[in-house]
């Protein structure tokens, strides 16, 4: 019995080492997969997390065992829990769900146009998208976005009209309007029935001369 117990004790360090290496390798793959899914470079993740670029590179290549503090910083920058970072496998897909209650709603000044923010908070600085629902006659006045920004309005129900500096175009069901939104612009629902559309705003787009 004693010899058996001694063999178990002698085997523990190797088992712990193998387990740590397995966890570290899985962690590196997970960090790299999430970083690429968010379209972040090593430098960008380093800037957002406060973890040195060289350390992140070593983690992804399974060349170091990061501290809990380092894992926490990376998980915060990647907007995931530590539990998910540690438990995720390389084959796990990125999949998340937002409930109706979690979806913010913006109202136009006349209260007749509603914008459900269905875009991702991670992309808000360069890509925004909304589900638009409007009562007949509803008007949405918008201030200019950054220079070169482009907006796309795809109509699924009703008729919408877009006014950019006095230039007006209409779109019916199944049609899409694309326009510069780096100047004041107005969207109107001009049909007799309620309208629905999807609005996508690309910020910092190439300047359209």
Key terms:
209 residues; disordered N terminus; elongated; HTH cro/C1-type domain-containing protein; RmlC_Cupin_sf; 27% strand; 33% helix; alpha+beta; 434 Repressor (Amino-terminal Domain); 10 strands
Q: What structural class do the secondary elements suggest?
A: alpha+beta
Strand order of the largest sheet: 1-2-3-10-5-8
How much is the average pLDDT? 81
How many strands, what sense, and barrel or not for the largest sheet? Answer: 6 strands, antiparallel
Low-pLDDT sequence parts: 1-9, 15-23, 205-209
As a percent range, the share of strand residues is 25-35%
| H-E order | HHHHHEEEEEEEEEE
CATH architecture of the largest domain: Sandwich
Structurally, how many domains make up the residues?
2
- Strand tally, please? 10
CATH superfamily membership of the largest domain, which one?
A: Jelly Rolls
What does this 3D model show about the protein?
- Pfam families: Cupin_2, HTH_3.
- Residues 31-85 form the HTH cro/C1-type domain.
- The chain is built from 5 helices and 10 strands, in the order H-H-H-H-H-E-E-E-E-E-E-E-E-E-E.
- The protein has 209 residues and is α+β, with helices and mostly antiparallel strands.
- It folds into 2 domains: 2-87, Orthogonal Bundle (434 Repressor (Amino-terminal Domain)); 100-202, Jelly Rolls.
- The strands form 2 sheets. A 6-stranded antiparallel sheet has the order 1-2-3-10-5-8, with no helix packed on it.
- Strand 1 (105-107) and strand 2 form a beta hairpin.
- Helix 1 packs across helix 3 (53-60) and helix 2 packs across helix 4 (68-77).
- The model is unreliable at 1-9, 15-23 and 205-209 (pLDDT under 50).
């Amino acid at each position: 019995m004693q010899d058996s117990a001694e063999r178990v004790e002698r085997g523990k360090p190797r088992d712990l080492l193998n387990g740590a290496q397995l966890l570290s390798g899985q962690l590196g793959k997970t960090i790299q997969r999430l970083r690429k899914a968010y379209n972040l470079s090593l430098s960008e993740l380093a800037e957002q997390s406060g973890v040195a670029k060289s350390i992140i590179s070593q983690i992804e290549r399974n060349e170091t065992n990061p501290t809990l503090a380092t894992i926490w910083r990376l998980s915060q920058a990647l907007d995931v829990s530590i539990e998910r970072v540690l438990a995720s496998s390389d084959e796990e897909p990125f999949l998340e769900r937002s409930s109706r209650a979690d979806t913010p709603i913006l109202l136009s000044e006349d209260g007749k146009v509603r914008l459900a923010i269905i875009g991702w908070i991670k992309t808000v600085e360069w890509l925004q998208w909304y589900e638009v629902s409007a009562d007949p006659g509803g008007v949405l006045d918008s201030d200019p976005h950054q220079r070169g920004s482009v907006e796309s309005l795809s109509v699924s129900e009703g008729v919408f009209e877009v006014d950019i500096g006095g230039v007006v175009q209409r779109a019916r069901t199944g049609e899409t309007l694309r326009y510069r939104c780096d100047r004041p612009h107005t969207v109107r629902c001009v049909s007799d029935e309620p309208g629905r559309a999807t609005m996508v705003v690309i910020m910092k787009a190439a300047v359209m001369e």
